[in-house]
């Protein structure tokens, strides 16, 4: 900040929180935050490429240190998935969990890059006025991931139970439906009255669930990473106020970074676990 | 903080990454780990097998050793028995042989004695005749009395 012209604090923050957006069409939706996209793609290629590079040369004999590390991650993910999902996890869900965990972890970890240093020495010389390093502090990224998981959830629901089974579940779970094709009994008569009410209740419940899942999934990650970034910016603001501020800013920045390691790993883990849980739930019939 | 086209781009990136992991990253790792797990399990099973085989072999060798010991002592006992038997036999044979030789010698001695006696008798009679002849030369005709003297000698 010291190198920039006299910005007010709000200008400083909004400067750092602005995306490098390019319009790709008409309307406010047709904008592309290509800083988020490029950072996430670079990180995805880097992380999964690294794992792929190790996996390609993997041996069942004595593993190299790299392979041992990758196997450690592999075993960790595999264990988590095994505990939640009881099916053929190796064909899709476990690899997806690995991708989600490593990718989100890498994207979250970009929060450790000091914003002003990165901006001053790397982005500004490249002619980039706004550049967001942390793709997961962009709601578009987290919502894209959550939405993809949501679509997979519906896909697996239909694949496992069939379209009819899925629609049946939409209306008949979780409260169940009264058996109403018993016209001669009194219970059948009650069921005839009750069932449409249950259908409505079930359907409303399921719709709420389907809406809340991707929202909570994406907003949890986004909120944590965005808040982390804002706190770094506030510390940066203090650091720009003079010598005392710089010293305290450095100490607080270091402290927040260390604490942020926990948040970065934890949020990646939570995001991965929720992905697995949602996909596992889609496989279960009620 | 607007929802915009980035959403779709990121979702596509995510899908590609998942596809890549499912296709290229997970299978080789899984295979390597599962193969190693199997190898370790096999190794442990083989070790267990080896241990039990060793136990069986040890038991078997012990049994064989005991049998061999028993057989050896049996053989030694038999040999000892046989040795004493042979010694006894030899002793018996020697005694018989000795007796035989002794009796043969005795018979020969008797024979010699008899023969000597016979010779002596003849010589005694001859000497007696010769003596008598010398004494009786003058009065007794040798020829007339030799018949009587040989009769006398036969009677001796």
Total tally of structural domains of chain A: 1
Strand composition percent of chain B: under 5%
Kindly report the spatial arrangement of strands forming the biggest sheet of chain A.
1-2
- Largest beta-sheet characterization of chain A: 2 strands, antiparallel
Strand fraction of chain A: under 5%
Q: How many E-type strands of chain B? A: 0
The assigned structural class of chain B equals: mainly alpha
- Summed up, the helix count of chain A is 8
Rg value of chain A: 24 Å
| Euclidean distance between termini CA atoms of chain A | 57 Å
Quaternary state of the chains: heterodimer
Q: What percent of residues of chain A adopt helix (DSSP H or I)?
A: over 70%
Biggest interface, and residues per chain? A-B, 49 and 32 residues
Shape of chain A: globular
Number of helices of chain B: 2
Helix content of chain B: over 70%
Which structural class matches the secondary elements of chain A? mainly alpha
| Element-level helix/strand string of chain A | HEEHHHHHHH
Whole-number mean pLDDT of chain A: 87
How far apart lie the N and C ends of chain B? 173 Å
Keywords:
heterodimer, A: 286 residues, mainly alpha, two-stranded antiparallel ribbon, 8 helices, 2 strands, globular, B: 156 residues, 2 helices, 93% helix, rod-shaped
């Amino acid at each position: 900040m010291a190198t920039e012209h006299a910005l007010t604090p709000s200008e400083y923050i909004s400067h750092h929180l602005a995306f490098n957006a390019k319009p790709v069409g008409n309307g406010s939706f047709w904008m592309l935050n290509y800083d988020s996209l490029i950072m996430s793609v670079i990180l995805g290629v880097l992380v999964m490429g690294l794992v792929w590079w190790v996996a390609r040369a993997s041996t069942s004999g004595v593993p190299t240190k790299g392979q041992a590390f990758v196997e450690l991650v592999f075993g960790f993910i595999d264990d988590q998935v095994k505990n939640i999902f009881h099916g053929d996890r190796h064909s899709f869900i476990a690899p997806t969990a690995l991708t989600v965990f490593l990718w989100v972890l890498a994207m979250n970890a970009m929060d450790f890059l000091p914003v002003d240093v990165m901006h001053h020495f790397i982005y500004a010389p490249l002619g980039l006025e706004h550049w967001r390093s942390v793709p997961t502090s962009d709601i578009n990224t987290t919502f894209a991931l959550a939405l993809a998981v949501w679509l997979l959830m519906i896909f697996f629901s239909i694949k496992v139970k069939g379209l009819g089974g899925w629609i049946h579940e939409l209306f008949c779970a979780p409260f169940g439906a009264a058996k109403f094709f018993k016209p001669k009994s009194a219970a059948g008569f009650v069921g005839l009255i009750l069932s449409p009410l249950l259908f409505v209740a079930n359907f409303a419940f399921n719709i709420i669930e389907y809406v809340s899942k991707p929202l909570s999934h994406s907003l949890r990650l986004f909120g944590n990473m965005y808040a982390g970034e804002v706190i770094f910016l506030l510390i940066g603001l203090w650091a720009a106020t003079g010598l005392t501020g710089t010293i305290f800013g450095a100490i607080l920045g270091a402290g927040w970074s260390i604490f942020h390691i926990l948040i970065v790993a934890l949020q990646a883990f939570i995001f991965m676990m929720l992905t697995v849980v949602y996909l596992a739930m889609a496989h279960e019939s009620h | 903080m607007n929802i915009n086209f980035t959403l779709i781009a990121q979702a596509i990136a995510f899908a590609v990454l998942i596809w890549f992991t499912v296709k290229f990253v997970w299978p080789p790792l899984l295979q390597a780990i599962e193969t190693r797990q199997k190898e370790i399990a096999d190794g442990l099973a083989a070790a267990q097998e080896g241990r039990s085989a060793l136990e069986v072999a040890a038991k078997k060798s012990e049994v064989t050793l005991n049998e061999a010991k028993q057989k050896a002592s049996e053989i030694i006992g038999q040999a000892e028995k046989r040795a004493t038997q042979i010694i006894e036999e030899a002793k018996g044979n020697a005694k018989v042989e000795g007796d035989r030789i002794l009796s043969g010698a005795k018979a020969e001695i008797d024979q010699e004695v008899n023969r000597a006696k016979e010779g002596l008798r003849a010589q005694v009679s001859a000497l007696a005749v010769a003596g008598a002849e010398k004494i009786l030369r003058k009065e007794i005709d040798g020829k007339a009395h030799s018949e009587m003297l040989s009769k006398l000698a036969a009677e001796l």
